[in-house]
Amino acid sequence: MHKPLVIGILNGDDIGLEIVPAAVEVIRAAAEHTGLHIDWRALPIGRTALETHGSTFPDGTMEALSEMDGFILGPIGHQAYPKVPGAINPHPILRKRLNLFANIRPTRSYPGLGALYENIDLVIVRENNEGFQPDRNVVAGSGEFRPTEDVTISVRVITRIGSSRVARAAFEIAQQRPRKRLTIVHKNTVFKLGCGMFVEECLRIAKEFPDVTVDEVIVDTMAMRLVRDPQTFDVIVTTNMFGDILTDEAAGLVGGLGMAPGLCIGEGSLAMAQATHGSAPDIAGKGIANPFAMIESARMMIEWLGHNRKIDEAIRAAALIEAALTTALASPSSRTPDIRGTGDTADMTRGIVRAIQTIP
Length: 360
Ligand code: ATP
Prior knowledge:
The chain has about 350 residues and is of the alpha/beta class. About 40% of the residues lie in helices and about 15% in strands. It has helices at about 15-35, 45-55, 60-65, 90-100, 160-175, 195-205, 220-230, 240-255, 290-310, 310-330, 345-360, and strands at about 5-10, 40, 70-75, 100-110, 120-125, 145-150, 150-155, 180-185, 215-220, 235-240, 265, 270-275.
C-alpha cells in the first residue's frame, strides 16, 4: 500500500462552500475505485474562519499546509470582508510562503456546452509570483504608489529566476502532450528589458527540450488569435498579468469561468488546486455554481501528485475522473445552467460520481 496522500480542504467563501465539497466528493469516489489512499484534513479559512477563529487565515493553517502533499483552495471573497482586524486576504501570504510560481490553467472545449469552437485543448502557464501584480512583486509595501495626488506609479518586476522556472514548468508540460508545442507570449516590442528578459530565459530553457517546437506571439496578437484560431495553440507560457487576462479570455471560448480550472505548483513538491474564477457572490447559496473548474483543478492536483510521488492509484483516479467528466458533461441534466444544463451543482456532482462508479 502506498503512503496516503495528505490533502487539505479549504472551502473558501461564497460558492466555495458548494463547489469544494463537490470536488472532494468526486475525488473520494475515484479514490475508492482505484484504491488511492487520501488523508483529508479540513482547515479553517475565509469568512467562516473569521467567525469561528477570529481570523480569515487563522494561526496554524499556514503551518498545517506546509506539511501536506496538496490542498484544494476554494475561491476567496476577500473584497467583501468586513474592515476588522483578522479579516485579511490569504492569497498573497499563501503565494509567497509556499512559492507557488507556476499557475497551470487548461482550456478545453466539450461538445454541447456553448463553446465557441470545437477541439480547443490548450494550457496557459502563467507566472504567478512577480510581474505587474502590486501585491506580489515586492517583499514589503506595494508595487504601486502615488508620489503626488496626480501621479501613480506601478512597478513590474521580471527576474531571470522567475522567468526560467516558469518556462521550465511549461516546457515539461509541453513535452508530455501529443503536439509538443510551446508558444511564448510577451510584448518585447515595448517592454524591451522586462519581456526581453522573459523571452531570453524561455529560449535558454528551450535548449533543454529539443523535441518541443517553440514560437513567439506578441500579447495583443495573441488576444486576437485566441478568438480566431484557438485550436492552433498547445501550451502557452507568459508573464503574470498577460496570463491573468488571457486565461479569462480562453475561459470565455469554452463556456465561461465555471470551465476554468487551475493548478499552482512551485519549487517544493506541494500542489494547490485553485479554480481561476472568484467566489461569485451573485450566485452563492443558490446551488447553481458550476463545480467543473474546482473538480478539474483537484483532478489535476491528484494527477500531478501521482506522477510526482509515483503513485499509480492516483494517476488512475485522475484518468477515471477525466473520463467521468466527459460522460457527465454530455448530458444536460448533469450540467449547471451556465453551460446550457438543466441541472444544478448537486445534479452535476452526482452525474460525475455516477459515471465514476459505472466506468469499468
Ligand atoms: P475575482 O476578482 O475574485 O477573480 P471576479 O470579479 O472575476 O472575481 P467571479 O467571482 O469570478 O468574479 O464571477 C464573475 C462572474 O462569473 C459572475 O457573474 C459569476 O456568477 C460567474 N461565475 C464565476 N464562477 C462561476 C461558477 N463556478 N459557476 C457559475 N458561474 C460562475
